[in-house]
Amino acid sequence: MSDIIVKDSNGAQLSEGDSVTLIKDLKVKGTSETIKRGTLVKNIRLTGNAGEIECNTKQVKGLVLKTEFLKKA
Are the C-beta atoms of 41 and 21 separated by less than 8 Å? Predict the structure, then answer.
């Protein structure tokens, strides 16, 4: 996985343990939750896909987010 470069919506490189901020309100599939714009997500985990990260929020655990909706905090 170290050869895959993961970038946020602004082109900043993301790595394990970084914090990111949502730039858009996102509805979570399978729940009635909406994660609001500006939500800080700490301690992200990289997946094998360059366009996705894995994280936990206060509302939802084990969430996979697309990097196009994130910016590095």
Answer: yes
Q: What is the pLDDT of residues 5-53, one digit of tens each?
A: 999 999 999 999 999 999 999 999 999 999 999 999 999 999 989 999 9
Q: pTM for this one?
A: 0.87
Q: Diameter of the chain by CA atoms?
A: 36
What is the C-alpha separation between 61 and 64, in angstroms, rounded?
9
Taking a C-beta distance cutoff of 8 angstroms, is the pair 69, 38 a contact? no
Letter string b/e over residues 56-68, b meaning 16 or more CB atoms within 10 A of that residue's CB = ebeeeeebebebe
Separation between Cα atoms, residue 44 and residue 38, nearest integer Å = 16
Helices (H) and strands (E) in the chain, counts: 0, 10
